């Protein structure tokens, strides 16, 4: 009877340890993503402010269209690059959060 209780306690402790490792990886990954998004927002704001200054300083309509076109092209490329990077970060986050469960799943499979 006591052996079953000890086994149950060990299983419970092991499960909690695995869950805490996964939670730690999830927290670390989410912090990295939040930092990346904040940095991108700051960079994007600075670039749009600079583009607006260029647009206001344009002496002709052609120069204004050129400034706007350059800004839109750069903003699009920047967005696509950042979206790709964030997607990769989420993928890595999922892998890291699942990693502690790999050992448990291997034991269950046997």
Structure description:
It contains two helices and no strands. It has helices spanning 2-57, 61-109. Helices cover 95% and strands 0% of the residues. Helix 1 (2-57) runs antiparallel to helix 2 (61-109). It has a domain at 38-101. By secondary structure, the protein is an all-alpha fold. The model has no long low-confidence stretch (mean pLDDT 89).
Report the sheet with the most strands, covering strand number, pairing sense and barrel closure. Answer: none
- Give the count of helical stretches: 2
Number of strands: 0
Instruction: Calculate Rg over CA atoms.
Output: 25 Å
Large-scale geometry: rod-shaped
Low-confidence stretches: none
Indicate the percent of residues in helices: over 70%
Secondary structural class: mainly alpha
In short:
The protein is mainly alpha-helical and 110 residues long.
Spell out the blueprint of helices and strands:
Elements: H1 2-57, H2 61-109
Helix pairs in contact: 1-2
Tag the structure with descriptive keywords.
2 helices, rod-shaped, mainly alpha, 0% strand, 110 residues
């Amino acid at each position: 009877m006591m052996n079953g209780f000890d086994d149950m306690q060990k299983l419970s402790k092991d499960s909690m340890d695995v869950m805490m490792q996964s939670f730690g990886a999830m927290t670390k990954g989410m912090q990295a993503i939040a930092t990346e998004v904040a940095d991108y927002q700051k960079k994007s704001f600075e670039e749009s402010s600079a583009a607006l200054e260029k647009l206001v300083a344009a002496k002709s309509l052609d120069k204004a269209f050129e400034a706007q076109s350059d800004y839109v092209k750069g903003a699009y490329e920047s967005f696509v690059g950042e979206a790709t990077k964030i997607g990769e970060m989420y993928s890595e986050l999922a892998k890291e959060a699942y990693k502690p469960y790999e050992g448990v799943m291997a034991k269950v499979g046997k």
